[in-house]
Amino acid sequence: MKIAVCVKRVPDMELRFAIAADRKSLEQTGLKYDLSDFDGYALELALQLVEKSGSGEVVLVSLGPDGVQETLRKGLAMGATRAVHLQAADVPVDGFAVARALATELEGGGYDLILFGRMATDTASGAVAPMTAELLKLPCVTAISHLDIADGKGTARRDLEGAAETVTFPLPAVLSIDEGIARARLATLKGIMAAKKKPLEVKPAALGDVRLTVETMALPPERSGPKFIGEGGDAVPELVERLRTEAKLL
Amino acid sequence: MANTFAFAESRGGALRKAGFEAVTAARQAADATGGGEVHALVIGAPGIKEKADALGQYGADVVVVVEDAGLARYSPEAFAATAAARLEAGDFRAAFFSASAEGRDLAPRVAAVLGLPLASDVTAFEFDGDAVLAQHPAYTGKVVVTLRLAATPALLSLRPGAITPAEASRTARVESAAPALDPASARVVVTELAEEKTTRLDLGEAPVIVSGGRGLRAAENFKLVEDLAAAFGNAAVGATRAVTDDGWRPATDQIGQTGRLVSPDLYVAVGISGAIQHLAGMRTSKTIVAINKDKDAPIFKLADYGIVGDLFEILPRLTEAVRQARGSQ
Ligand SMILES: Cc1cc2nc3c(=O)[nH]c(=O)nc-3n(C[C@H](O)[C@H](O)[C@H](O)COP(=O)(O)OP(=O)(O)OC[C@H]3O[C@@H](n4cnc5c(N)ncnc54)[C@H](O)[C@@H]3O)c2cc1C
Ligand SMILES: Nc1ncnc2c1ncn2[C@@H]1O[C@H](COP(=O)(O)O)[C@@H](O)[C@H]1O
């Protein structure tokens, strides 16, 4: 089985963010980057599928500045076969431009599956996978939480609001991966050593026109801080009174 | 005069709130740009046409109904081809989808068919000449990004709950159309739709969410959380990943960075520490209440109201007090 996994590096969300002087980007000093959560699940799924099928390869593709090579090395250490870095000064917010560059790379690659995260944790958009699929004219199922593959056909589960869909599709296909399928494995020391020697190809990203851009970035208004913190069950009446009169909720 | 487009989502033969939100946004957009018609698109099994009038009440001038026995369930390829064909056939300035589970699948496909960019998960928008400025909470809600969308039509998907459906009553012209792709020829097929048999409100639609964490200690103790939700009357129940991982609650109840992103009027966090991945899913809630025995739990930093103490003592009393407060209205 030959599987491509599109992975994005995103800032560690636990850190404090500051807005840069241009008011359009994050202040970079102090940021730490890592593989986006769902992309880790997608990679884990790819590794398991190839392990189960007994042969094949897992190819990582990431678009971004040179820093993405560190993320790609991490994926190689987890067990991917090789990696492609599509070089761009930064990752545009225009998911269609990203999809175009990814599709250019993936086209004709002979992949049985092309996997994505359900959404990148920075953009929270989830647009790149279906857009890439459309450009490649491949069947696509998004946000899947369960997958079975047999005889060149797949069956997936998609969770909706208060419902779940069972979806069937033929291979090759594009899938985006939700929570619940697999948790990303940790790289072993042996994997980290092996990753240093695995192929990592660098190419320019074919982004084309970018028609969605960041106008401004701002931190959300600070929450005002607690208005009332009581102690124990005896605080219940005051809490309810405040919910009624201050927050006008009851 | 250019028109505005809205995709009106339905499921099981009924229109969804997400659909009314999209039509409301389209009406606002049309009014803000000096007119033009609002065209709503509804796709479903035969019979869905009877629901079309309701979209007029929210401001649709034209409702295009595509009925086909093969479209009783969502068909990604047939829906996308049909929506794209409608957008191509008309003169549209902007098109609104929902960033619901279905809309997040549909809108990017439509955008790619048309070769257009998409602003996803938008909470507010305004026009700036030919461009649209769209607000989008990014970086797990820690940054508010304003996007500039320079393409016509401007395609946007709206975060559920961000736009309140508003009546703008008119009598819509209802037109029938055929799907642009025969659903029988689609490669991706939804073979089953399992609706949860519950009267519970969906997390995305409930004005109040009561969420439980590991502090509940066991699945059966979620009865306490459900009782409080029932006392509010308009509440849904959520959970942390610690809880869904242990199977105490279904995975679909998970709120956070890798679960649902919600912003209800009131979020009650019970026995939840407030890990950053959980906060990512609920930090935009209007009012936050925390109940935790650890006064240093990070959830208290975000909370507007809180009680430090044992949830097993506090919850039954709170449930009773909420019931009384609502009963005495
Ligand atoms: C990649 C990744 C993605 C993740 N995504 C998510 C996500 O989407 N959503 C999510 O929720 N988590 C997510 N997590 C997990 C997250 O980091 C936390 O582990 C999780 O949110 C903790 O859940 P909790 O608050 O229920 O449990 P704990 O952190 O164990 O907190 C339990 C709390 O209950 C309190 N408590 C205990 N007993 C009582 C009592 N009797 N009365 C009152 N209070 C009591 C304790 O003081 C404590 O604060 C993710 C983690 C990773 C690594
Ligand atoms: N710069 C990128 N390089 C490689 N893959 C990406 C990139 N951006 C997004 N993706 C993939 O597309 C998915 C969805 O991203 P988004 O549409 O931005 O939420 C991510 O989880 C990745 O799998």
What is the CA-atom radius of gyration of chain A, in angstroms? 21 Å
Report the end-to-end length of chain A measured between terminal Cα atoms: 57 Å
Spatial order of strands in the largest sheet of chain B: 7-11-6-1-4-5-12
Structural class of chain B: alpha/beta
Identify the overall geometry of chain A: globular
N→C terminal distance of chain B:
49 Å
Instruction: Give me the number of helical elements of chain A.
Output: 6
DSSP, total strands of chain A:
13
Pick out the low-confidence regions of chain A. none
Helix count, DSSP H or I runs of 4 or more residues of chain B: 9
Which series of helices and strands of chain B comes N to C? EEEHEHEHEHEEEEEEEEHEHEHEHEH
* Biggest sheet features of chain B: 7 strands, parallel
Give me the Rg of chain B, rounded: 21 Å
- Portion of residues within helices of chain A: 25-40%
Tell me the β content of chain A.
Answer: 25-35%
Which structural class do the helices and strands of chain A define? Answer: alpha/beta
Order of strands, main sheet of chain A, comes to 9-8-7-10-6-1-4-5-11
Helix content of chain B: 25-40%
Classify the oligomer. heterodimer
Quick recap:
The complex is a heterodimer of chains A (250) and B (329). Helix content of chain A is 26%, strand content 31%. With 250 residues, chain A is α/β, with parallel strands linked by helices.
Molecular structure report:
The complex is a heterodimer of chains A (250) and B (329). Chain A is an alpha/beta fold and 250 residues long. Chain A has helices spanning 37-53, 68-78, 95-106, 128-136, 189-195, 236-245; strands at residues 2-6, 9-11, 33-35, 57-64, 82-87, 113-117, 140-150, 153-160, 163-170, 173-177, 200-204, 212-218, 228-231. In chain A, the strands form 2 sheets. Chain A has a 9-stranded mixed β-sheet with strand order 9-8-7-10-6-1-4-5-11, sandwiched between helices. Chain B is of the alpha/beta class and 329 residues long. Chain B contains 9 helices and 18 strands. Chain B has helices at 17-32, 52-57, 76-89, 101-114, 222-232, 241-245, 276-282, 299-302, 311-327, and strands at residues 3-7, 10-11, 14-15, 38-44, 62-67, 92-98, 118-122, 124-128, 131-138, 143-149, 154-158, 173-177, 189-195, 208-212, 235-239, 266-270, 287-292, 305-308. In chain B, the strands form 4 sheets. In chain B, strands 7-11-6-1-4-5-12 form a 7-stranded parallel β-sheet, sandwiched between helices. In chain B, α5 (222-232) packs parallel to α9. Chain B is elongated and about 60 Å long. The model of chain B has no long low-confidence stretch (mean pLDDT 95). Classes of the chains: A alpha/beta (250), B alpha/beta (329). Chains A and B meet through α3, α4, β7, β8 and β9 of A and α3, α4, β7, β9 and β10 of B. β12 of chain A pairs antiparallel with β10 (143-149) of chain B, so a sheet runs across the interface. Residues 213-215, 240-243, 254-259, 271-273, 275, 277-278, 281, 292-294, 297, 310-312 of chain B line the site of flavin-adenine dinucleotide.
